[in-house]
């Protein structure tokens, strides 16, 4: 067997192992990041503040071939101070809001709770 054949035969298991470790590392990193955000939200105070709905957007992913599509909904709120906050909402909460709505936003960290329209 020539040098190329030896390298190819010995390199494939190393390459496959490296790819496996990379994918496994990304999965572990994502789980830790999500648990950290969940914990941070739980430790944040629950705030109710006057706000205005500035903009709404949705993001759809998947849906090719036999896979179903998923839609994610986001709303940007602006406070009296001029600060803005974008929060992820459920489809039903998203549908109940319109741009320029005024009301009281209740949230905890990055977790949306409710918006009571005035």
Number of domains: 2
Proportion of β residues? 35-45%
In one word, what is the shape? Answer: elongated
How far apart, in Å, are the first and last alpha carbons? 79 Å
Proportion in helices: 25-40%
The major sheet is characterized as: 5 strands, antiparallel
Task: Give the rounded overall mean pLDDT.
Answer: 91
Helix-strand makeup class: alpha+beta
Biggest sheet strand line-up = 3-2-1-4-5
Commentary on this structure:
It holds the Pfam family DUF2500. The chain crosses the membrane at residues 6-32. This is DUF2500 domain-containing protein. It comes from Psychrobacillus psychrodurans. InterPro entries: DUF2500. With 118 residues, the protein is α+β, with helices and mostly antiparallel strands. It folds into 2 domains: 1-43; 46-117, OB fold (Dihydrolipoamide Acetyltransferase, E2P), CATH 2.40.50.660. 39% of the residues lie in helices and 41% in strands. It has 2 helices and 5 strands, in the order αβββαββ. It has helices at residues 3-43, 91-95; strands spanning 46-62, 69-79, 84-89, 102-108, 111-117. It has a 5-stranded antiparallel beta sheet with strand order 3-2-1-4-5. Strand 1 (46-62) and strand 2 (69-79) form a beta hairpin. It starts with a helix and ends with a strand. The mean pLDDT is 91.
Please describe the structure with a list of short key phrases separated by commas or semicolons:
alpha+beta, DUF2500, five-stranded antiparallel sheet, OB fold (Dihydrolipoamide Acetyltransferase, E2P), 118 residues, transmembrane helix, DUF2500 domain-containing protein
């Amino acid at each position: 067997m020539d040098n190329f054949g030896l390298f190819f035969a010995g390199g494939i298991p190393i390459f496959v192992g490296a790819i496996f470790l990379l994918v496994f590392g990304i999965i572990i990193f994502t789980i830790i990041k999500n648990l950290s955000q969940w914990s941070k939200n739980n430790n944040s105070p629950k705030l109710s503040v006057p706000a205005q709905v500035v903009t709404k957007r949705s993001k759809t992913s998947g849906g090719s071939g036999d896979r179903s599509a998923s839609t994610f909904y986001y709303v940007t709120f602006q406070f009296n101070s001029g600060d803005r906050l974008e929060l992820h909402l459920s489809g039903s909460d998203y549908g109940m809001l319109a741009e320029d709505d005024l009301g009281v936003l209740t949230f905890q960290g990055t977790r949306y709770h409710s918006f009571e329209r005035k």
